[in-house]
């Protein structure tokens, strides 16, 4: 079972989000932050587009022989003393991880940032089984102690203002001896650092995700800025990596190519602070590192996309640029989407992973403005994939009867141009007859959904088509 | 019993229409790809002339919030370290990794600088290490874990002072991998590319230095190419 989505409540969630002043203040940070930093970083790399095409090609090439690369990765990992586990779905992955933890009698497991662990609901499962998962990425830590879910894939606590975090830390850390409420971001970061230091040292196992699985070397790679992933995977006696099948790339050089577009797109950096390749457990004479190294390779529905027209979505490197630039995400934030992956990538990926029945609002939560595709460093045709899901939704008769009826009527009209002109000219005449002096309607029958939030412009008397025809006649 | 592994791999193969074993020539092509048959696409900023490497590395490193000082001789290290610690209000107490390279430094001239040769733990404030190679394009240092260079040394202390030899500065990450492939037989447990001090943007997207790893990174570049 994957984590239960609440995506079918998108409309209600969005309404609440729009009325939430605190959330709107937090979302405001997006504009000045990630968007402008990305722009600057790309200016510093004139070859960005060419490298983006190369990065796209690397993934496409891997998918053509995905089984080969996965087997290569496995073989190399084993050569260096690691163990590879294969999980078909969320339950498999959770049980494999639980068994590994039980085998060393683990009580505490630190975690680097991994979206897949959110996808499979790992934290809840481990807690039910008496193991404490401790998030160490600051954003993940904030949402964990707040009892919430991440709202952005690279900035999980994006929905919280600094004041929210200050209140939360004061409440949660006071019993641990941190009595004073900190106000500055730097003091809050320092407090979390101090609290989490103890947890790293107490942990029996550490779990990280992987930005890449390198087939050539059997290495898993993480890209971070905080350094939490490195402490998570180096201090405890067991390092578990949780990664999906689409993360494999051929060589270390391919990682470098993709990093050149990932880092600018994600945070506006030329290079993330830490990129670490981990291969096997610590060597015999090493003084640090885990005794055991396990890689759990998860499918969870992704292999179904291989070889289909939706395969493109698997190229995603989780930079978050699509959501940063999405007008819908920018207005409602990540929680409204109701599942792990918000924004345009969620609208394209979630239906494939949880079914269109549970996520049909998401591909509709788009204006198709195309900014997501424009900024995607892996050139994923996000609007095209969303359109595909809208078609699926229609085929499965998921929209309400009234919606389908109106759309069918519309379809009938646009397929019959003569009738369309007659009907539209009647509507235009009626509307312009009742048109108020001010030139717009403040309310309209059957259109309160529109007029409750904005005015509806009154028609000028004639339709575009008839005006064009008149002009056409004049020109004769 | 069919395993998860078999089920996943066979589903991929059948979706790709590759149920049959690959022809030898196809396998040879894929194997060659893993051995580097695809030339890298390195941007202009990562293609740097030998005599410009130091300058570019220094500016890139400053760009990622590392501080830098350049020395001409190893004997200058204790003085530089002492100066850096004093300037930054850091206790005059460092841990130096016990390894061949750093053992040759004579710290005795500065008795006020307390030097302990050991692997650092979470109580040690400042560590002195050396880097394997450094990357000019991004101001990055590369650390390979080993019995003499535990990975935790680069993450536990608050301040990291790193010796970088100018002769070991390469242009791009691809060049660093090239050096690695030539010099070492077996890949270490960790290869870590470090670009500046640890940071986070997780509180209202403000960038704060010193999240979980070092709050400060100081690079001592030894110009051994002179």
Characterization of the model:
The complex is a heterodimer of chains A (476) and B (226). Helix content of chain A is 50%, strand content 11%. Chain A has helices spanning 10-18, 21-27, 29-43, 48-64, 66-79, 90-103, 115-120, 122-128, 138-145, 162-173, 185-202, 228-234, 252-267, 321-324, 327-332, 343-354, 371-375, 382-395, 401-414, 417-433, 448-451, 464-475; strands at 83-87, 108-111, 132-135, 205-208, 212-214, 219-224, 238-244, 248-249, 274-278, 292-298, 440-441, 456-457. The longest helix of chain A is centred in the middle third of the chain and has 18 residues, at 185-202. Chain A is built from 22 helices and 12 strands. Chain A is globular, with a radius of gyration of 26 Å. Chain A has a domain at 401-475. In chain A, α4 crosses α13 (252-267) and α16 crosses α18 (382-395). With 226 residues, chain B is of the alpha/beta class. Chain B has one domain (46-222): NagB/RpiA/CoA transferase-like (Rossmann fold, 3-Layer(aba) Sandwich). In chain B, 27% of the residues lie in helices and 25% in strands. Chain B is built from 6 helices and 12 strands. Chain B has helices at 4-16, 24-34, 53-63, 77-87, 100-103, 173-183, and strands spanning 67-71, 93-96, 114-117, 126-130, 133-135, 140-144, 159-165, 169-170, 190-194, 199-203, 206-209, 216-222. In chain B, the strands form 3 sheets. A 6-stranded parallel sheet of chain B has the order 1-12-7-4-2-3, with helices on both faces. The chains are: A alpha/beta (476), B alpha/beta (226). At the A-B interface, α3, α4, α5, α9 and α11 of A face α1, α2, α6, β9 and β10 of B.
